[in-house]
């Protein structure tokens, strides 16, 4: 499994989580969740185009993902924060890929996901100052 495969899997999981969580949000958090869901879908589509251009078969999404019980806005915010952190950490790890093209792709996705994480944190009132988002603690 390549870093790109792992990143695509994280994008699939994020799309699933946003579908489960956004219905519990309202106001700015709901608007931002809808915008970020769209961004994850755009990244997924760009990755699928990448595979197609390389003549490779993209990994398929899982049939489902364990998102736990999302019963209210607080649980939805917690889930989406965890998802954004996971996606960012996944792309950050991919930046160590040895193939220059894959490394460039992962770095581009890492930058985009770090911005998404910051926007989400702002939408729910969390601090966004993190010089290396996705870095293990």
TrEMBL record:
Top-level taxon in the UniProt lineage: Bacteria
Residue ranges the record marks as coiled coil: none
Pfam families in the cross-refs: DUF4439
Domain DUF4439 residues, every copy: 3-136
Classification via InterPro entries: DUF4439 (IPR029447), Ferritin-like (IPR012347), Ferritin-like_SF (IPR009078)
Listed name of the protein: DUF4439 domain-containing protein
């Amino acid at each position: 499994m390549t870093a790109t495969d792992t990143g695509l899997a994280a994008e699939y999981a994020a799309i699933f989580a946003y579908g489960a969580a956004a219905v519990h949000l309202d106001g700015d958090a709901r608007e931002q969740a809808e915008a970020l869901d769209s961004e994850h879908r755009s990244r997924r589509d760009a990755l699928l185009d990448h595979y197609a251009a390389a003549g490779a078969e993209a990994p398929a999404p899982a049939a489902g993902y364990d998102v736990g019980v999302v019963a209210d806005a607080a649980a939805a915010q917690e889930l989406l924060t965890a998802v954004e952190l996971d996606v960012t950490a996944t792309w950050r790890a991919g930046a160590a890929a040895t193939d220059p093209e894959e490394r460039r792709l992962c770095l581009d996705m890492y930058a985009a996901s770090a911005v998404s994480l910051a926007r989400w944190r702002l939408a729910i009132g969390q601090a966004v100052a993190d010089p290396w988002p996705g870095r293990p603690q």
